[in-house]
Structures are given as structure tokens and as C-alpha cells.
Amino acid sequence: MSEPQAGYLGLAPFLRASLGEGDLPALARQWLDRAGREDTAAAWMNLATALLCLGQTQTALAAQREALSRARTYALPGPDEPAPRLLLLALPGPLSANTPLDCLLEGQGLQLVVHFVDPAVPLAEALPEHDALMLAMGVSEAALPVLAALQERLAGWPRPVLNPPAAIRRTERATLSRLLADAPGVLMPPTRRVPRALLESAAAAGAWPEGLEAPPFLLRPPDSQGGHGLARIDTGEALAAYLAAQPEGEFFLTRYVDYAGQDGRFRKIRVALVGGRVFPVHLAVSEHWMVHYVNAGMYGDAAKRAEEAAFFRAFPEFAQRHAPAFSALSERLGLDYVCVDLAETADGRLLIFEADPAMVAHAMEPGAEFAYRREGIAPLREAFVGWVRARREGWG
């Protein structure tokens, strides 16, 4: 049986430091020193996490391999009182590979144990005792064969299985767009994979052959996260420049939808679905169509934060207004927990950008100016803990 290693901190303290409450480079140096002196699995994994937060991906993944050569199962800091143990099956790789539930829970309500599966032989070893099991990984090229293997391995599992493999596979971008094509109150333009050769011929000819979306459209590499490699293509020249910078052999292509508000600003909303209920995670307001909370100016703009605070207060009305859409999302995805990035269109529909069980949900920004976020995300934390407890108690 694989016993959990103590001392692994998870992502939470390193994310908090990256948001300004601490010195992330100093933390990385500390764990580099400790990994060299102690040579424990937890020290190497903490070093890997710190380096991933600093963007030193290749060095971080080397440290992660050192950790996994010593142990694959890690206990995260949890509550002092007895709590249900949730075993998370994670995939080795970058931060975007798995949901960082420790950033949402912050040691409250559940004891989290992370087991990093071996992609070559998933779950070859016995797992530690647990009250429920959850697949923590999102969909990716690396995850797809692992999910297929886990679907067979987890059939008839003796504990509740949250976010089963088949449901996670539905969040692949092309699959998701087909799944939601006729969902009430939802707009998600068709997304498909296109080969590089087709795009190169279009760029060379300056024309758009049959089967290729006319501009403006969006392109991204298959495993792109956080906007990396994402671009809006308006002309053949822009397409040629994009291909010159991106080496991948295929791309996701989808029609661009202008979702700017009347003031010209773009508002991207992140929500979480837990057991069919919807909760707010954040609202980011930006002058650019590609919106991410960290680069939207939310930290330095009090007016934007005030708008987000108002969004949290008014969320029950927002959820009620879009109840048919959220119900369709929950039913068609079939996930216990998933985050969805979306916007509200001028005609009142929800424009879906992506649904991903590995997206981060947190309220770790320091300072009194973000107190509204800590208050606003608390219901999501409570709902998730309650859902896991309910699944455990209703089992058998």
C-alpha cells in the first residue's frame, strides 16, 4: 500500500507568495537547499511547485521527477479535527494538469491526499485508505490515455468516485462544443482541430478554403492553457505570422465572438459547478478581449474590484437568470466539480470559453481590498466539502 508522505505543502503557500504575500524566489531557494540536504520526496515536490510558480518549467519538472522517484502519494495540510479523507488522482506535469483543491479549501473540511499516477501503468500499486476518490486531472493530450486506462481500473471501485474519467473527457474543447451545441441559453461556437497544412495553404493563398472558418477566428495549440499560444486571426498576414511563431502540427480553431459590453470592456466570469449547484469564483474586467484575472488590472483598479464585489452580491439573481443554461451544463458534463469560464452576451446568453475541472478557484489575494472575494468564495468551499461528505454518506 502506498502510504502518504508528510511535509508536502501543495500549491497554496506558493500561490499566496506569488500574489504578494511572501517572497516566492526566497521560498524556492529555501526548498532548493532543503531538497539538497534532506533529499526527501516532499522537499523535492515543494521545490518543484515553487519553480513551477516561477515559470522555470523544465527545472521544476526535473525536481518533480526526483520527488516521484521517491514517492507518489502525499498528504496535504488538513484540519486539526478528524475529517473525511479525499484521495486525489493527479497527473505529473505542469500546474495546469490538476485542480489545486488545496487553494480552495486551505486546510478546511477535508483531509486531502494526492496520488500522482504513473502514466505508463496507472494505479498499478495499492492506494491508501480513503473515504472518497476524485480524479484531479483535467483533459489534455497526456491525460487522454490515462483517463481511458483509469475508466477500466475504477469500474466497481469500493468508494465514491468523483469526476469520473468519461466525464472529464467531455471537457475537451471540440467535444464540449458539440455537447453544448443545442443547450438552452448557451453559445459555444463549434471548435475543431485543424491541421497545420490547411492553415499554411490558406495563409499562402490569402484565401479561406472550404472547411476553414472565415476570419475573425481564434487559434490555439491543443494543450494551450492560460492564453499561451492563443491568438485572434483577422487576416492572412496575421495567420502567416502566427504560424511562424507556433511550431505545432495542429490547432483548435473556433469563431471569434465579440462579447464587449456597451462601454467597450470585456468581462469574463468564472463559476464553479458543485453537484449541480453554481457558485461564483471571480469576475475579471479588461480592455482586451483575452481576459485573465492576473493581467486584467484588477489589482490596481478599485473601480474594477467594486464591480466584482457587486457581481458577488448579485450572483443569486445572475444564477437564476441563467438557470436553464447552468442546468444544461451540469447535466451534460456529469461532473461533480468543474469550473467554467464564460461571458454574458448582448442577447442574454452565456458564451462558454471552456469548462475545466483543473482550473483554480481561490480567494488568496492579500489585503482588505480583497475581503469581498474571501467572503464571496466561502459558499463554494462549504458546498464542495458538503458534497464530498454527502457522496461518502450516501455510498453503499
Provide structural commentary.
The protein is of the alpha/beta class and 396 residues long. The chain folds into three domains: 11-170, no CATH class; 190-255, Dna Ligase, domain 1, CATH 3.30.1490; 266-394, ATP-grasp fold, B domain (D-amino Acid Aminotransferase, Chain A, domain 1), CATH 3.30.470.20. Helices cover 38% and strands 19% of the residues. It has 14 helices and 14 strands. It has a five-stranded mixed beta sheet with strand order 1-3-2-4-5. Helix 6 (143-153) links the parallel strand 4 (132-135) and strand 5 (161-162). The longest helix has 23 residues, at 371-393. The radius of gyration is 21 Å and the shape is globular.
> What is the makeup of the main sheet?
5 strands, mixed
Using only C-alpha atoms, the radius of gyration works out to 21 Å
Shape: globular
Low-pLDDT segments, ≥5 res: none
Element order: H for helix, E for strand: HHHHEEHEEHEHHEEHEEHEEEHHHEEH
Strand numbers in spatial order across the main sheet = 1-3-2-4-5
Keywords: Ligase
Organism: Tepidiphilus thermophilus
GO molecular function: ligase activity
Protein name: Glutathione synthase/RimK-type ligase, ATP-grasp superfamily
